[in-house]
């Protein structure tokens, strides 16, 4: 035998909570955790990519700057004015010509000094003793770089950062300089002078860093021998890099960033090589952690918001779904125990509200049907008991009346035969093989037979008319409803003087109801008297007839239908109200017997 899954026995509240946690809350928490982990990687990768982009930008800018300065030295070597200024002796050009050349050359350097804020100064000196000095005056030029430049015989020499005294009053600054010997264009072994271009180290560093995306990393430039060429700290520039292990890794691991601990802090290190220079970027891991804290706060906010939203959703689901369902379940249990007064409070118009309304209507209908069924069964039992007590055989009664009617005809007494025929018709209608419902037309035919018998007795003092609206002939009604009212009109309407009475019976449709009026022109009766008769003791025949009709209709169709007194100028107007039922839709509880029918819809007898 397969083991029953315990989850099937859980309450709807428990199932809903577990399903919501499994399908909503837990997945959101898992996604938040993945988001946090991926954000960590993305931020780290983004920081490293930014660092590489910065290095590429610095590499391009530094390379362009070095090329521009070297191009200036090239221009000095190959420009005719510079060449003449550095080689002509006093007799080879006039004073005015030397003055013009000096002016033009100074204008050239003024342009560069103006457009490049890192351009500190330039000094040109020829073997002929002429020189040009532009920018800040350098007092203590480092002799070792002059010597080294001459040893390179015309090749460019870039110096390490070194301190100089410039301006007035004097100020110490660190410069990176280009030294180059100027050789004769006709004899490269013959020196005609030299050029020195000094760049301000700190301003050059600021210029290279000016276009970077952010300043989250430490950027500096190293020479291959470990000398710091450019650094944010001007005091550090020109010194040797202290961590030789890091220097070796920079030289050997340029393709991929690597993690390194420096001065007690973890860094992600990236580098690029430019000739004999190494451009280095070091991003602190703590910076990435700081950026990640924002993501952490966002993630925590998402998680907290999700939990709060989940709680609100669960509360809302309990209040608007589970609570009404629970109330409906409790009322259903009451109905199971036989309590048909159970009702569910309808608080909404949604599907649950519709279900509650239909449940209330269903219970009401069941209660009404049960009450009707019980009462009808009691009435049926009572009728059966009375029939058994009477010990009258209906067929014997019919046959006897038919025999008397035919005897009257044979004896040529047609009026007597007609009366017996009317009486027989009334008996047949009363018994109707035990059926309770008959058509409207059949009920009025039986009433007509009763009126004919009464007219035989009363003669010209009784007049009557009967009317049935076309289309209502076969609408089922309870039998023996009209005859007791006609009997009351005859017995109590004529009064003590036995005046002439006219009884009118009409059946018609009013909205969705069948109306049968019994109207007479007798002495009349007040509404209060009608109410007294309807509530009188069963011993009173008149009161019993009205009570019987009222209860039969109310028990069968409900309180909306029954007997009513209509105010009239003279006489009495009793109105009976039935629902219009179709035989084919009510075969289960309406049994119609085909009685003798009269083809006339209007019956009038005066």
Description:
The chain has 606 residues and is of the alpha+beta class. The chain has 3 domains: 10-335, Beta-Lactamase, CATH 3.30.450; 340-391; 435-605, Heat Shock Protein 90, CATH 3.30.565.10. Helices cover 50% and strands 20% of the residues. It has helices at residues 12-78, 80-87, 95-115, 143-151, 201-209, 244-252, 285-336, 351-390, 394-410, 414-431, 440-458, 482-493, 527-534, 541-557, and strands at residues 119-126, 131-135, 157-158, 162-166, 171-183, 191-200, 217-223, 228-230, 258-262, 265-274, 277-284, 437-439, 462-468, 476-478, 501-510, 513-520, 562-565, 572-579, 602-605. Strands 1, 2, 3, 4, 5 and 6 form a 6-stranded antiparallel sheet that branches. The longest helix is centred in the N-terminal third of the chain and has 67 residues, at 12-78. Its main location: membrane. It is a multi-pass membrane protein. Keywords: Cell membrane, Kinase, Membrane, Phosphoprotein, Transferase, Transmembrane, Transmembrane helix.
User: Hey, roughly how much beta strand do the residues contain?
Assistant: 15-25%
**Could you report the average pLDDT, rounded to the nearest whole number?**
78
Total of domains: 3
Question: Span from first to last CA?
Answer: 86 Å
- Architecture (CATH level 2) name of the largest domain: 2-Layer Sandwich
Number of strands: 19
Number of helices: 14
Q: Any idea what the radius of gyration is?
A: 62 Å
> CATH topology of the largest domain, what is it called?
Beta-Lactamase
Determine the structural class based on helices, strands and strand pairing.
alpha+beta
CATH superfamily of the largest domain: PAS domain
Low-pLDDT ranges: 584-606
- Categorize the overall geometry: rod-shaped
Give a short account of the largest sheet. Answer: 6 strands, antiparallel
Which CATH class of the largest domain? Alpha Beta
Helix content: 40-55%
